[in-house]
Structure formats: C-alpha cells, structure tokens
Design a protein that fits this description.
The complex is a heterodimer of chains A (205) and B (346). Chain A has 205 residues and is mostly helical. Helix content of chain A is 66%, strand content 1%. Chain A has nine helices and one strand; from the N terminus they run βααααααααα. By secondary structure, chain B is of the alpha+beta class. Chain B is 38% helix and 20% strand. Chain B has a six-stranded mixed beta sheet with strand order 11-6-1-2-3-12. A two-stranded antiparallel sheet of chain B has the order 4-5. Chain B has a two-stranded antiparallel sheet with strand order 7-10. The N and C termini of chain B lie far apart (70 Å). The chains are: A mainly alpha (205), B alpha+beta (346). Chains A and B meet through strand 1, helix 2, helix 3, helix 6 and helix 7 of A and helix 1, helix 2, strand 10, helix 7 and helix 8 of B.
Chain lengths: 205, 346
C-alpha cells in the first residue's frame, strides 16, 4: 500500500509530489497548509545544523536552527516562489541569526588559535602532508577568521562551509553578485596573508 | 591545498552531526504552524499545540466531513435548510474514531472534542486520550481493560461498553461541556476515504514497522494508501515512540491534517476523484443527531472562512495516574480552564 512518491501509477498525486517537487512548491503550499513547512525542516535542518555548528558550536546551533525555521515560517508569504531552491533563503536567515552571536563566534575562533594540535596524523603520504599542513595552519586560520569583518566572514563561510555558489550567496545576503565577489576576494586575501606568515608549504594561487 | 581547502578542512573538524534532540526544534515549528502562539492570555492552557503540525489549517476531524463537503460545492443555497448547523450558533462536537471491524463492541481509537464558536472565527479541538481516567458512568460497565480502582474507568472502555450515548454522558460530566452533536468515523470508512483520495501524502521522519498493526513504511515523503494510513494512526508500539496513547494521538492528528490538505489539493487538481471522495466520506461518517446533506453543507459553509491559523489543536493536559500509571489523569485545574472556553467562547 505504500509507494514512494516517484513510483509510477500514483496518478495525479505524483505530479506535484513534494519529494520531487521544489522547495518553492512546498513553501507555496504551506501558506494554506502550514504542516507542509515541516517537510522543509526535514530536508534542510541537518544541513543548517552542520553549518551553524561549525560557526557557533553544537549547543547554540540547535536553538539557532529552530529559530531559523521559525523566522522562515513567519516570512513564508514573502518567499519568491520563482526561486525553486530554498537553501540560499534559509542560509541567509541562519547567517543573520548567527551574527547576533558574533561574540560567541569570535571567542570560538580565538580559542582554536590557542588550542594545541590534536594527535598524530596517519595515512598515505600525501594525506599526511595535507593533514600536517591543515592542522599546522589551524591557529593562523582561526586567528584570521576571528579578525575578519563580519560581512566578509559571512561571504567566505557561506562559500567554504555552506557550499553556496556566488549567486546563491548573493541571494542569501541580499547583495549583488559583484559585492559577493569583492568581499570574498578581500577575505581570502587576508586569510592567505595569515597563512603565508606561518605556512611555507602554501602556494599562492 | 589552497586557502579554501584548508578552511573546509577546519570546518570539517569543527562540525557536529545533528543530534536527535533537533526534533525538539521541529516541534517548535509545529507549534508555530498550529498558530498556538495566539492563545489568548499569558498562560498556555495545557498542551495546546503540542501536536501542532497537525493544524494544516483545519480541525482535521471536523473538516473531513464539513469543509470538504462545502467544497463539494455548487451547493444550491436553497438547500441550506438546517440553520442549527450553520453560523450564528455555537456548537460543540464530539468526534469519535471508532473501530467496529471486529465482532463485539466497537472501540474508540480516538475521541476529540471540538468547539465552534458562534462566529466561527476560531475553532478549538482537544483530543481526549482513550486512556484518560474517568469517573465510571452508570450507563456503561466497562468490561475490558483490566481491573480499575472502584469508581474509575478508562474513557475508551466507556465507549466500548456503553456506546456513543454513554461516551457523551461521560465526556459531558468530565468536561462540563455540553455536546451538541457526535460524529463517528469508523476506521474502515477512514481507510476507504483515504483510498478514494488516492492516498495521503505524509512525511515520515524515520522508517517504521509494526507487526500488530501491519504498518511498514520507509522514511521520507510517502504516499500512504488507506490500509497503511490506518495502521499508522493505530500503531501503538513504534520504535522511537514512548508507546503512549499521546504519541498515537499525535500521529492521528498529523494524519487527519494531512488528509485534509490532500483533499483540498485534490479538489483543485482532480474534481472527479474529489467527488467520489466526498461520497465515501459522507457515507463513512455517522452523525447524531442526524445531519442531512444540507445540514452538513450549512455547517461546512459556516466554517468556510475559518482559516489555518484560526484552529487550535491540542490534547487535554494530563499525566500518568498515581494509582494506575496506565491511566492518564487530567491535570486540574488546567483541564477545567481549557473546557471553560468551550462554554464561554460564544
């Protein structure tokens, strides 16, 4: 009796099935049928949690993910349904909420700057080399993050940790793509400079 | 490795996997979806909105018969013959999901009290767990359910022993709420309603299997047929569930809400299928005192403007009884306060 939404023979139901349907369709539907919004949570809460846990740690992340969906839910009427993918929208909301915790975030990176390198690195030679590089560079990296202006940091981390494209970051933050590019370049320049100080193995691009 | 690569590595080290407790955040969202934040007064009465995702815009059980019938549409106004069911009159409904498939007395699997104020601006729906501890009524001598302390009974057993009229008396005595009409949906009727609709779409957070009910579903967004939908509503012992009646009540409400949403969509998308669904629904629901189709429509029309955020769905506040932990004792005075609104609400 149970069929996956993609199974053939489900008739009219499968046409707009949420499993295959876009986020925009879900959001549109949730305007009349609020429960539909829960499916968005099921789709993206894990992804957002991972992203926020990187920036703020696990304790703050849980609550913040909840806040993100509450905020998104209350703004669902204003969602542009021409945008099929809701990730940029959700990342944008989460990022704004993260900025309220900028002290926590800064403290987190500064703590990393001081924390010792963990355990020996094992594995194939190239991975060891990379691993050594990455772990050795961690203090410098986190120090650089702690010093970045928030706007630049948001762009950098949406790209590096949120895996958004430039266009998606632009949507998330409500700024032109050109602005995204310039902020990202500026942020990366600073990060590279910080790494260059301590990491002779680093190759400039 | 370039700077972005190193940054990604660092991110990977910092990352945490979503904990199981993240589900709590989904519940917060569900509460918001149920519009529970709008509850009047500072105090949230009992467990309003605990199962909020269910709001789906509609007091599930009521709306299956009524809103859907209104949609059945084209209703000619001349047939609005039963003003008692229409707007202008406050109404309390007792809704019973009944299991009459097996020989012997029918068993209530879900009991819901709904209040429709005169202006229909808000609708309140409260589930009464069948494990609720009630004062044993004179009308029914609960046979099943094991020995109980003298004078007490299980709400579900009252229905099994004394039928709808006895259930009404008991609920009226327990809540102080006058019951104007009862609507009984037999589960087989429910199954047929779901099938008539072509199934119901619902999201399963995890795969579930239960031998007793025959439930077997995988995680994700699914299309449940009637039999599986019924099993989902009825299953008692599921992994990740606390096995309580409340857990089951939550599933039933979710399902009913999904069903209403589904029906509304079908109404637009597939009028033929929707019409056949209506016919099945009308036949599957037994209303007392009897409500003819015109009365149904009149009731439904009066609810036509009651929106998603205007329906509050909750469960009567309760906790395991001290003497018999298998029973749920209602929290007082929270429960009384809750039902006071049913009378005062107009």
């Amino acid at each position: 009796m149970v069929s996956a939404m993609t199974a053939p023979g489900t008739g009219a139901l499968s046409i707009d099935a949420p499993a295959t349907g876009s986020d925009a369709e879900l959001i549109e539907r949730s305007r009349d049928d609020p429960e539909a919004f829960g499916a968005l949570f099921d789709r993206y809460s894990g992804m957002l949690y991972r992203y926020v846990s990187r920036r703020l740690g696990p304790e703050a992340a849980e609550d913040l993910v909840g806040e993100t969906f509450l905020a998104a839910f209350s703004r669902r009427d204003r969602y542009d349904v021409a945008q099929g993918d809701a990730r940029p929208w959700l990342f944008g909301i989460a990022t704004k909420l993260v900025s309220r915790h900028h002290r926590t975030e800064g403290a987190r990176y500064r703590a990393l700057r001081r924390s010792p390198v963990e355990g020996p690195v094992e594995g194939p030679a190239d991975r060891v080399a990379n691993g050594v590089t990455a772990t050795a560079s961690r203090p410098a990296l986190s120090a650089a993050l702690a010093r970045l202006p928030r706007r630049d940091l948001d762009v950098l981390l949406l790209v590096a940790w949120g895996d958004l494209t430039y266009e998606e970051v632009a949507r998330a933050l409500g700024v032109p793509v050109g602005t995204v590019r310039s902020r990202l370049n500026r942020a990366r320049r600073k990060v590279r400079a910080a790494l260059g100080d301590t990491n002779p193995m680093h190759e400039e691009e | 490795m370039d700077d972005l690569g190193m940054l990604r590595d660092l991110g990977g080290e910092l990352e945490h996997e979503p904990p199981a407790s993240l589900a709590r955040q989904r519940r917060r969202l569900a509460d918001a979806a149920a519009g529970t934040v709008r509850v009047r007064g500072a105090r949230r009465p009992g467990r309003w909105g605990l199962f909020g995702a269910v709001a789906a815009g509609t007091a599930a059980l009521i709306l299956v018969p009524s809103v859907l019938l209104s949609a059945g549409g084209g209703a000619d106004p001349a047939r609005h013959a039963d003003p008692a069911a229409g707007a202008g009159t406050a109404m309390n409904l007792l809704l019973v999901g009944s299991d009459a498939r097996r020989p012997g007395p029918a068993r209530a699997d879900s009991v819901v009290l709904a209040h429709l104020p005169a202006d229909r601006a808000k609708v309140s729906v409260v589930s009464l767990p069948r494990d609720s501890k009630v004062r044993a009524p004179a009308c029914g001598h609960p046979a099943g359910g094991g020995p109980r302390a003298a004078g007490t009974a299980r709400l579900g057993a009252v229905y099994a022993a004394g039928g709808t009229s006895c259930l009404v008396k008991t609920v009226q005595a327990m809540t102080g709420v006058r019951v104007d009409r009862t609507m009984v949906i037999e589960f087989d009727g429910f199954r047929r309603m779901v099938d008539a609709l072509g199934g119901v779409e619902i999201t399963m957070p995890r795969a579930l299997a239960d031998r007793n009910s025959g439930l077997r579903v995988h995680a994700g967004h699914l299309l449940l047929g009637g039999a599986q939908a019924l099993a989902y509503a009825r299953a008692r012992h599921l992994p990740g569930s606390d096995g309580s009646d409340l857990d089951r009540v939550g599933r039933q409400q979710r399902l009913m809400a999904a069903l209403v949403g589904q029906a509304k969509r079908e109404q637009l998308r597939n009028p033929v299928r929707f019409a056949s669904f209506l016919k099945v629904a009308a036949g599957a629901i037994e209303v007392s005192p009897k409500l003819d189709l015109a009365g149904f429509r009149s009731l439904a029309d009066s609810l036509g403007r009651t929106g998603a955020d205007d329906v509050r769905i909750g469960v009567v506040p309760s906790r395991p009884d001290r003497a018999d932990p298998l029973l749920l004792a209602w929290d007082q005075p929270a429960a009384s306060r809750l039902f006071a609104e049913f009378e005062a609400g107009g």
